[in-house]
Task: structure prediction
Amino acid sequence: MNHPSFDALFQPFSVKSLSLKNRIVMAPMTRFFSPQGLPGEDVAAYYRRRAEAEVGLILSEGTTVERPAARNDPNIPYFHGEAALSAWKRVIGGVHAAGGRMGPQLWHVGAVKNALADWNSGFEAESPSGLAAPSVQRGEVMSEEAIADTVAAFGRAAADAKALGFDTVEVHGAHGYLIDQFFWSGTNRRNDRYGGLSLKERARFAAEVIKAIRVAVGDDYPIILRLSQWKQQDYKARLADTVGEMSDWLVPLVEAGADVLHCSQRRFWEAEFSEIDGTDGLNFAGWAKKLTGATTISVGSVGLSGEFIRSFAGEGAKPASLDNLIRRMEREEFDLIAVGRALLSDPLWASKVRTRDLASLQDFNPSSMRELV
Ligand SMILES: Cc1cc2nc3c(=O)[nH]c(=O)nc-3n(C[C@H](O)[C@H](O)[C@H](O)COP(=O)(O)O)c2cc1C
Result:
């Protein structure tokens, strides 16, 4: 490996009240280690270990807002109710004691069934049009009342995050879950004000969620919104095929109050519109930054040879060069970089990179997904 200076990764960064010591973000990763929806001491220690080892910002695993069918697995943590919130208070206490910064990822799965477990919440799944995928019916169509209650639940969760001392919140608007089901024409067939032919119209639900959070947290608290073109239901699906469509999608969300767009790709180096600017062109986070002026986070196979969907199929990955990432960070294509599996399996990943101890970076072994190292 030819390694240039990694300085671009270790520059401080601030957005509103959030000050970070470097550009490394732990990507949100569902771990299924919170029985009865309660993150225990093991979960708190897992996050604290990453804070102790130089991760600039930790995003929690998806944690659900207060709607009956928001979860699709009994071991996903809640972000509501006294017991879960006091458990989360221990988590942020540990991260802060280690000098870290953290935000919970607020989540509602919509109509997506958990592919890994045959579990039912006991409540009907809910989604914009009762569709888990374009031709897969599941659960109920959300009424306007259900939508309003869900928007309010996101607002309450964000207010709780701030009250507990978390430094930011991330809204999960990606990967084919509830908010993304509203964005996607394949799963949003509504003809009321939450549907429509344009992405801008289908972004109304997300914009309402962001506005409710803004009211709950005030002007100076940063709100992160995670988005993706791809869906777990269809990896090739895209919401925005043109720059104009991407602008129609993202600008209203930033105007609604999103400060940071977390642009999920499976491979961060892939150009978003390759026909426009070639293979080394801007990625999703690069275009999002250019079109909106918002802070952006990129993600996808950083430091590893294989991508994450294949990890669920049992495929391992080896450490890979960071040169391309550093080049893009030096030219300020995006502001922050999220790291998933490399940090899931090695809590010391960020400190090893900082001290250039690259020889001790580990392979990613999918068996590490079954434990909290
Ligand atoms: C075990 C696991 C759980 C994940 N859970 C979530 C999640 O709860 N929310 C989310 O937005 N993304 C989730 N992801 C996607 C990651 O945040 C990240 O985008 C993806 O792993 C690509 O980054 P990587 O190649 O560095 O692993 C998960 C990924 C993995 C491997």
